[in-house]
Every structure is written in structure tokens, then in C-alpha cells.
């Protein structure tokens, strides 16, 4: 059985903008601190890919971008996380505050994407795979922190709490994705971001750089 469905919610440009801001503010130490060629290269790749993605969404593939549903008020995420970064940080210096801001912002940067899916009611299969990959990326950081704590005694409460918040946002989605497989259309229940499933039937339609 093929997973065929009509067009559904795609990628949120606003979430991608937030991710670009996250990596830009996190890796400003590129100009002040050299650790290794690998470290520097990966930071540059993160930043470049983030802005390239934003450019692709709003320029090259603008005709396919669903801006009518990508309407989350990102200021409700940026302003509180910026204020929190000023109040709760490891060191009250510009780079440290910006790093802390990036950690807080990344924990909620996926919300415009989830909100976009909730507005349309359904998501394309490829979008669900994308969300799953993002969730796995964040979950792997949890194992990284456990390993670093055991091997190095490293413990960063700010990064861990922010990571847990972001992982929690994916929990319901993870459960549905893993238990129901790929041949489904993600459907958001009315009144919340909790996800339900609607099986897709065949049709003629289209189918070490660390935040710690």
C-alpha cells in the first residue's frame, strides 16, 4: 500500500527563521574563540544551512509555501526567552546571554510548525518524517548529556531543562509515529496540539558542536 494523500501542512518558515536565530546567537563565538577546525566548520554549516533553508522557503519555493497557515506570533516566543536569558544565565556577559537565549529559544522554536499543523488539521507524510527527525535530534542530546556527566562530570542545568522542555513537546507525536508507522496522515484533535491518526488510503492524489 502506498502512502498517498492530498497536499497537507508543509514546513513552517517561521520555525526555520527561529532556528536560524538560534544558531546565529549560539555560535557568535566563531569570531572570538577557536577550538578546532571541525568545531568551526560545523558551526558554519549549521548557520549556513539555516539561512539557506529560510531562503529556499521564502524565495525559491515561495509558490509552495503555505503562509496563510504559518501565522504563529513568534514574538510570544522571542521576547519571553530573551527576558529569561537576561534573568537566568551562567554569566552576565553579552556572548553568554546570547548563548543562553539560543538554548531557551530552541526549546520552543518548533511551536510554529506544530501550530501550523494544528491549523490545517493534517500534515504531509514527509512533514511528519521531518518532525520525527527533529525530535530524535533533540532526544539524542539527552544521551549526550548523560555520557558527558558520567565521563566528564559535566552538568548544565539550563541546557538540560530546555532540552527536556523541547523533548516533551514531541512526546505525543513520537508515540503516534512509532506505534502507527509511516502510512498515515497526522491529524490534530480540535482544541489542542495532541495528535490523532487517520489512515491514508490509496487514491489518485499525490502521494563536537553541542547546545550543552
Short description, anyone?
The protein is mostly helical and 212 residues long. The chain contains seven helices and three strands.
Task: Chart the SSEs and their pairings.
Blueprint: H1 13-26, H2 37-60, H3 75-87, H4 94-108, H5 111-120, E1 122-123, H6 125-152, H7 157-180, E2 184-188, E3 195-199
Antiparallel strand pairs: 1-2, 2-3
Helix pairs in contact: 1-2, 1-4, 3-4, 4-7, 6-7
Rounded to an integer, what's the Rg over CA atoms? 18 Å
Mean pLDDT: 78
Strand proportion: 5-15%
Note the overall shape.
globular
Secondary-structure element order, N to C: HHHHHEHHEE
Q: Determine the fraction of residues in helical runs and give it as a percent range.
A: 55-70%
Major beta sheet, specifics? Answer: 3 strands, antiparallel
Low-confidence stretches: 1-8, 182-212
Strand order in the largest sheet: 1-2-3
The termini sit apart by: 42 Å
Number of E-type strands: 3
Q: Specify the number of helices.
A: 7
SSE-based structural type:
mainly alpha
Protein name: ER lumen protein-retaining receptor
Membrane topology: Multi-pass membrane protein
Keywords: Cytoplasmic vesicle, Endoplasmic reticulum, ER-Golgi transport, Membrane, Protein transport, Receptor, Transmembrane, Transmembrane helix, Transport
Main location: membrane
Key descriptive features of the protein:
disordered C terminus, globular, mainly alpha, 7 helices, transport, 212 residues, three-stranded antiparallel β-sheet
What does this structure look like?
The chain has 212 residues and is mainly α. It is built from seven helices and three strands, in the order H-H-H-H-H-E-H-H-E-E. It has helices at 13-26, 37-60, 75-87, 94-108, 111-120, 125-152, 157-180; strands at 122-123, 184-188, 195-199. The protein has a three-stranded antiparallel beta sheet with strand order 1-2-3. The N and C termini lie far apart (42 Å). The model is unreliable at 1-8 and 182-212 (pLDDT under 50). One of its GO terms (biological process) is vesicle-mediated transport. Pfam families: ER_lumen_recept. This is ER lumen protein-retaining receptor. GO terms for molecular function: ER retention sequence binding.
